[in-house]
Amino acid sequence: HVQFLMGKAAAMPPTYITILMEKHMKRIAFIFLFFCLISGGYVSAAERNDAGTELQDESFALLQEWMDRLLDFQCENVHPALDGGLLCPACARMHGRIGDAVLPLMYLADRTGDEKYLSGAKRLMGWMENVHRPDGSWMNDVNVSDWNGTTVFAAIALYEALHYHGHLLDEATRRAWEEDLRNAGHFMMKNPFIYSRKREGMRNMNVNYSASATYALYAIGTYCQVPEFCEKAREIAADVKAYFTCPNAFLFGEGPNIWSATPHGCYPVDLLYNVEESLPNLAYYARMAGDEDMLNLVEKSMKTHLEFMLPDGAWDNSWGPRSFKWTYWGGRTSDGFMGGYYALAARNPEFAEAIARNLEVLKSATADGLLYGGMHYRATGMWPCIHHTFGHAKALASFLEQEAVELPEKALPRDAAYGMRFFEEIRTWLLACGDWRGTLTGYDSEYKVKGTHPMGGVLSMLWNRKTGPVFASTMNTYRMIESPNMQLHNRKYLTNGSPRVEWMKEGKAYTNLDDLEAEITCVEKDGVYIFDVKCHLVDAEQHSPLETSVAVSLHYEFSDSEIVIEAAGLPAEASLILPVIASPQEKVVFSPQQMTVEKEKGRLSVLCQEGAMSLLPADADGRVINPVPGFAFVPVQVKNNEGHPQKVRVKIKAD
After folding, report:
1. How far is Cα 71 from Cα 638, in angstroms, rounded to an integer?
2. Residues 199, 202, 208, 210: what is their CA dihedral angle, to the nearest 10 degrees?
3. For residue 274, what is the DSSP state?
4. Could you count the other beta carbons within 10 Å of the beta carbon of residue 638?
């Protein structure tokens, strides 16, 4: 990461370096060394990647594929208000955050020497004037949302484009971009809602803004020679340090109620916003500012969050309060974790391994040059939103800007069949038995809108090495909470993706998914992990289908060979719902006692030991897709047998 830091020092004028030296005498020798090293001149993107590893080469190929396709959607000679913008095929409009693509375009222009990327970047920034405000901010969208907090992320992309590749620009363009960057910094300074966690008189902000403002302001202050920006960045960072949990150093604050723990001791933590925006930007800030305390916190937090990466490289955010922005490969409108994690990979080789595996998931979700918002979007006729592509292209470019380093291979935490791990701050258990990986959650921290994620002792993720994902939770009720940043469901049927007990009454679902009072116990016996859950059937407002509460129980057994799910105390109107993940291309054989799904590398079997299975209504292809996280499901319903009322039991195997 020395090359990255050298570039930062190169942008500092002598007067600013003097300020830094006076305040941080311990780093004088380090800064002096930077100037000695950079005296040889500018290092281009191509030169930085000459010694690239296979990981960098594959990342570059995917980045170029994405950006070449995005340029096909760039308007030219249509109308002055449209020229330079990128038209989204899924949303039929131009997203206000497309300016983030300036970094990958400038990187490719520098790396390849192809004029089309430089021209595309200039025209893109020209279109961004449509969302540029006199106060220096950029709006999130045109005539859809006046939200301008995302100026933080737009400024980071513009800063990195200028810092690494500004030499490609003509003088007039470079000065104009620099003026926009400086004004963005002034906007952040004048609007504390961007970075203040006190929120007094402000709209409820999530921590990803204040965390990222540390890097944005420090970088702009350094590049534009405005020391007060850097001082404000340090103040914000000092505040943010208080938002890491004990003992696991989760960064919390992705929700409205952050000042005290929930009744079950939980805090508002969202994995994807943390790993794809907050932690990387805090890492960049800490490196630039020499903030070792922050760097150590970020490193510990990154390790904790990496516990939730599945062995295939997917991010398991099935439990997060902002899981409505979750897709299997990452976040829908966040940037990506690659650059931030790679910045610390020299000390943590598993971080590079995580990038390599996630890259494979990104490639598998890419078709026709665009990153689809769900693994089964294309198979079920959903179009790709370009937001996913340009956001993660930005993260890939930030990763590729760094010097390639050969690192030893190292396993991911979830590779090992370690049994069970419990994370008390989010009341969530990870299971790793044989080839099975599971996530069971009783997380009771709600977002601003209720029903965004499962609670109540739900098996929110089940994965197997032979079959891939089996269960993956969705929003409890699919709603366009952030309509500019989500896709409309376009098929007849819609299902919740969480395994659950459900009672449908007068068109409303009462389930254990929203139960805030579920009791969960776990014991290990002879290598089998046994969970017992006492819960209630309620809606998001905690209403019962009856005048009295409806209590049910769930029993789970996790072993190397199989998973057992049992539901007891079921009213006659209730049933166990198992939405089994299956692409329309995968063969399904079904009977009331057994269902099999033929996967590419194995067969999944669901065996009904007590009760009887049936299929709920589905679309013509036999599947029901949920846009978040983007899987197609076979909706299985398990009802009581007459001889065994109030109890159903299924066994899940993979071979």
Report:
1. 49
2. -70
3. I
4. 23
